[in-house]
Amino acid sequence: MTRTVQCIKLGREAEGLRAPPYPGELGRRIYTAVSQEAWGGWLKHQTMLINEYRLTPIDPKNRKFLEEEMEKYFFGEGSAPPADFRPTPPE
Asked: What is the domain partition of the chain in residue ranges?
């Protein structure tokens, strides 16, 4: 049976995550309020942040930055790309 949540990011009911995707309280909040679809959007956004800012996820400062951005992405004002970011146009 599929678990559904009222997704805070999509603003509608959608398929929920199978398990908390992140440790601690933030992971629990995401599990209860974020859909699989919205989590996929975060993974793409996180990849862009890692690439554009040249982050190393094993660095504690970089992990803290990504956690703060994740919090903003789902529960705050949103996580913005770098000011000079230009997405690659579709082919």
From this structure: 4-75
What's the Cα-to-Cα distance from 46 to each of 1, 6, 49, 58, rounded to whole Å? Answer: 29, 22, 5, 14
Structure tokens, 66: 């990504």
pTM: 0.88
The string over 28-65, giving b where at least 16 C-beta atoms fall within 10 Å of a residue's C-beta and e elsewhere, is: ebbbebbbbebbebbeebbeebeeeeebeeeeeebeeb
Q: Is the dihedral of CA 41, 44, 50, 56 positive or negative?
A: positive
Cα separation, 81 vs 18, in Å, equals: 28
Residues in the chain: 91
* CATH class of residue range 4-75: mainly alpha
Give pLDDT tens digits for 7-48: 999 999 999 999 999 999 999 999 999 999 999 999 999 999
